[in-house]
Amino acid sequence: MKKDSLPWLQYICRACGLIYDEEEGDPDSGLAPGTRFEDIPDDWECPLCGVRKTDFELFKKQEIALAPKTVSFSKKSGIVIIGAGIAGWSVIEAIRKENTHVPIALVSACNGERYHKPELSVAISRGLDGDKLIQETAEQAGRRLRVKLLTNTFAVGINPSAKQLRTTRGSIQYTQLILAQGSRAFLPEQVSTEQCWRVNDLASWSGLEKLLRQSSQRVAIIGAGMIGCELAEDLNKAGHRVTLINRDPYPLSTLIPEIAAKFLTQSMDQQGIDHRANAVINEIRKTDSGDSELSLKDGSSVVYDQLIVATGLITDTRLAKQAGLIFNRGIVVDSSNLQTSQKDIYALGDCISIDGVPCRFIEPIQHQARAIANSILELKQPCYQHTPPVIRLKTRTLPIVVRGLPQFNGKWQTVNQNDDELVMEQHLADDVIALLRVDLSRLKKSA
Predict the structure, then answer these.
(1) When comparing pLDDT for 15 and 378, which is higher?
(2) Is residue 372 within 8 Å of residue 348, measured between CB atoms?
(3) Residue 441 neighbours by CB under 8 Å, 6+ apart
């Protein structure tokens, strides 16, 4: 059989969740529409995060044959989902693939537009705005998937015994409830919400993008984790003067060893990013000239036009605790079907934890969504199997990939180091639990 007669396949990046569609190709990277995955050169990189072809896996495209008529939601309770991010829409598609008639309602505090969240930290230097990032409007997706939309609606409380969700638009009965509420940015006590930007959703990001589009500005970023480092490079490339405020001795201190972080710091220096290590915030104040200024406890200060906080994520406990759900750094779920400690309440995505570890990665969401759909619809399908993530820092000047999840008490050992790469393993007892690779070739070229 000729390749052209075979169905088009899709492959998902295990690091950032981007989907490569053979039918569409990747013209920006030189892959014409119709390029089969097997024909892609081995050195091709994910256009979003930069990992290689080997970090993609086959993605089962959701083929949904919808019922001819819209289901009535007002007279019959059905599945209710809280959250219209990647997790919320993914579980809707997984359910609709198997059942086109069951009533589904989606409750979202935002407008519910569909977009790929990992793009936010690298989009400004590419000249993208909010409209260009939207893949599908909530109205289009709701109509396509026959979902009752309650956008700009807040979930107020859950009554598991009555199977009732209270919202700012009234109460809704459910047969099953799925929490896809995500997580929110942690805010240092010295900074109020009115004083900063938190780039954790499209609406907030769009507001910042509109201001930065006007002129070159001084941007201070608090936090040197993945999002902080990615934003620093992205905004620097867009022509802004960036200062990265880091309370730790080196960036990504909870993820990578110091030897790797030194290369990341060197990369920032070469780009002109001002990285302030061991920097503790004292207060925010106004200068005599009316500028905003961060005062640091070592006596130094940072004057800025825009302030971004990227100090990590936390899961809101309000709904979970009010519903009596077990919580441990996230909503605790059964690792096989994602059910919480309450019958008929499920959760997935950023808001959950498995074995006490938050699960804030994009690639597992599709698998989690299918597991929930299988459980709710009582299908005899394979259960969810949680696997170590592929973590890719989306910094083009110094690509860093971590496979597995490093532990604070693990021991790093160098496997290989030369001018082109640094490879290290982290050991816990006799087991290798994480593998790190730093691509030094671009750093060498820019030195």
Answers:
(1) 378
(2) yes
(3) 419, 420, 421
With contact defined as beta carbons under 8 Å apart, do 176 and 94 qualify? no
Amino acid identity, residue 287? T
- Both tokens of 30, joined, read 């030189």
Query: Which pair of tokens denotes residue 70?
Result: 């819209």
Task: Report which of 413, 422, 427, 425 is spatially closest to residue 442, judged by C-alpha positions.
Answer: 422
Fold of 3-59: Rubrerythrin, domain 2 (2.20.28)
Fold classification of 78-183+315-376 is FAD/NAD(P)-binding domain (3.50.50)
Element (H, E) at 230: helix 226-237
Q: Where in the chain is the domain with CATH 2.20.28.10?
A: 3-59
pLDDT in tens, 79-135: 999 999 999 999 999 999 999 999 999 999 999 999 988 889 989 998 989 899 999
The amino acid sitting at 319 is L
Q: Within 149-215, where are the H helices?
A: 202-212
Q: Radius of gyration of the chain from Cα atoms?
A: 23
Closest CA to 56 of 10, 121, 24: 10
233: helix, coil or strand? helix
> Whole-angstrom Cα distance, residue 359 to residue 357?
6
Side-chain-side CA neighbours of 24 within 13 Å: the count stands at 7
* pLDDT reading at 29 higher than 80: no
Nearest to 344 by CA among 106, 81, 52, 4: 81
| Single-letter amino acid code for the residue at 220 | A
Q: Could you tell me whether strands 170-179 and 78-82 are parallel, antiparallel, or unpaired per DSSP bridges?
A: parallel
Q: What are the distances in angstroms from CA 134 to CA 141, 157, 199, 420, 429? A: 12, 30, 16, 37, 46
Hey, is 260 helix, strand or coil?
Answer: helix
The residue count of the chain comes to 447
Q: What is the pLDDT of residues 43-65, one digit of tens each?
A: 888 877 777 788 788 876 555 55
Going by C-beta distance under 8 Å and a sequence separation of 6 or more, which residues neighbour residue 140?
A: none
* Whether the Cβ atoms of residue 294 and residue 274 lie closer than 8 Å to each other: no
Write down the CATH superfamily of domain 185-309.
FAD/NAD(P)-binding domain (3.50.50.60)
In which residue are the tokens 């007892």 written?
Answer: 429
* E runs forming strands in 168-267: 170-179, 184-185, 218-222, 241-245
